[in-house]
Amino acid sequence: MSSITNLSVQQLRKAATLKERIQSLEKELSHLLGSTTTAAAGAAPKRKWKMSAAAKAKISAAAKLRWAKVKGTKPAAKPAAKKGKRKMSPAAKAKLSAKLKAIWAARKAAKK
Q1: pLDDT class of 50 with cuts at 50, 70, 90
Q2: Domain total for the chain?
Q3: CA–CA distance from 51 to each of 44, 47, 48, 58, 82 (Å)?
Q4: Does 8 reside within a domain?
Q5: Which of 11, 57, 87, 98 could be cross-linked to 7 through a Cys-Cys bond (beta carbons 3.0 to 4.6 Å apart)?
Q6: Segment 26-39, tens digit of pLDDT
Q7: In a domain, 13, yes or no
Q8: Sign of torsion, CA 81 85 87 92?
Q9: pTM assigned to the model
């Protein structure tokens, strides 16, 4: 069997049409036999989706709360509270503001 890189354009086209014909015949055969499975050769492998640990913890906490409501009891542990926004000190704000003003002044001067 020759390598695909050694084939001419006509041979590649013929191979493609043959493959399409084979696939259509397989599809017709499976339709006649009542099989819903398709050929495994043409199927791409499925990617497995992974959930982060934080997402799993949130789902678990929410489920525990729902079951506690159904049972009429208090949940054993409350879900983790959201962290508040970080606060910047006035000195850090002033330092950042001065730095950004210098950057924008330099950019404005470069345009002129």
Answers
A1: confident
A2: 1
A3: 22, 13, 10, 11, 19
A4: yes
A5: 11
A6: 998 888 888 655 55
A7: yes
A8: positive
A9: 0.28
53's tokens: 């640990």
How does pLDDT run across 54-110, given as a tens digit for each residue?
A: 999 999 999 988 888 888 877 666 556 667 778 899 999 999 999 999 999 999 999
Q: How far is CA 54 from CA 26, 47, 58, 89, 112, in A?
A: 46, 21, 6, 29, 50
pLDDT exceeds 90 at position 1: no
Domain hosting residue 21, numbered range: 4-33
The token duo for 79 is 């879900």
Residue 24 falls inside a structural domain: yes
For residue 97, give the nearest of 85, 89, 109, 86 by alpha carbon: 89
- Report the alpha-carbon distance of residue 79 to residue 65 in Å, rounded: 8
